[in-house]
Amino acid sequence: MTLPATAAERAATYWNAPETVRDFAALTAQPYLVEILSRYADDPAGPALDLGCGGGRNTVALLEHGRTVVAVDLHQAMVEATRDATAHFPADRITVRQGAADAVPADDDTFALAVCYGVLHNAPTPARFRSSVAELARVLRPGAVLALNTFTADSLDPRLRPGETPGQYVLPDDVPMTLLPTEEILAALASVGLRPEGEVHTYVRDLDVGPRAVLRCELRHDGGTGGNGEDGSRNA
């Protein structure tokens, strides 16, 4: 079989594969996310974003906690899986759309809560990583909460190889990803007004793809300027 020609096509082949979609659709929300959603049930009130919704497990958790949700994923097969997973909820409470993390299909200051789990590190370059952070700030209201989970460079799988720019690493299947130190990630978030609220968790998980260092925390949007890329341009 001929491999897809570009890294984006190789990534799409993996994420749209029926076995990948099936595995993600079978997952349920992590207990720590359920605890977060319970804690912020009414603080702040308003619609929620599930960015990188995958098979829909976090979208379902948001809906079960009373939120109206916009779920977004780059890959169409995951979009369809989330639509299937949420079909039993009222249609006026859930919208599932295809879109990229650095081009969220939503207006400025839309969401009171966002979940972004396992997404940012899939940015192919550090510049795209930072533009995705800025995009999250753009669509979040002042005072909104972001529940974040992303891989970091704090501990690196030896099977990864350095990419063309600092912070870029290449997986064994030649798909690039972005892994930055925790301090650098938090600084990028703070630069667009997203600051940790409560404990910041860092740890290493042994996954079937290898060991991954993880940053997990909640952040509050302080109303600072967001939504601009490194060149000062508005993301679409």
Topology of this structure?
Blueprint: H1 7-16, H2 18-25, H3 31-39, E1 48-51, H4 57-64, E2 69-73, H5 76-85, E3 94-98, E4 111-117, H6 126-139, E5 140-152, E6 161-162, E7 168-170, E8 176-178, H7 182-191, E9 194-196, E10 201-207, E11 210-221
Parallel strand pairs: 1-2, 1-4, 2-3, 4-5
Antiparallel strand pairs: 5-11, 6-7, 7-8, 9-11, 10-11
Name some characteristics of this structure.
single chain; disordered C terminus; eight-stranded mixed sheet; 236 residues; alpha/beta; three-stranded antiparallel sheet; 29% helix
Explain what the structure shows.
With 236 residues, this protein is an alpha/beta fold. Helices cover 29% and strands 27% of the residues. It has seven helices and eleven strands. The strands form two sheets. Strands 1, 2, 3, 4, 5, 9, 10 and 11 form an eight-stranded mixed sheet that branches. It has a three-stranded antiparallel sheet with strand order 6-7-8, with no helix packed on it. Helix 2 runs parallel beside helix 5.
| Unreliable stretches covering 5 or more consecutive residues | 226-236
Basic shape: globular
The proportion of residues forming helix, as a percent range, comes to 25-40%
* Global structural class: alpha/beta
Query: How many DSSP helices?
Result: 7
- How much beta, percentage-wise? 25-35%
What profile does the largest beta sheet have?
8 strands, mixed
Report the span from N to C terminus.
36 Å
Overall average residue pLDDT: 92
Oligomer: single chain
Radius of gyration from the alpha-carbon trace, in angstroms: 17 Å
H/E series: HHHEHEHEEHEEEEHEEE
Tell how many strands the DSSP assignment holds. Answer: 11
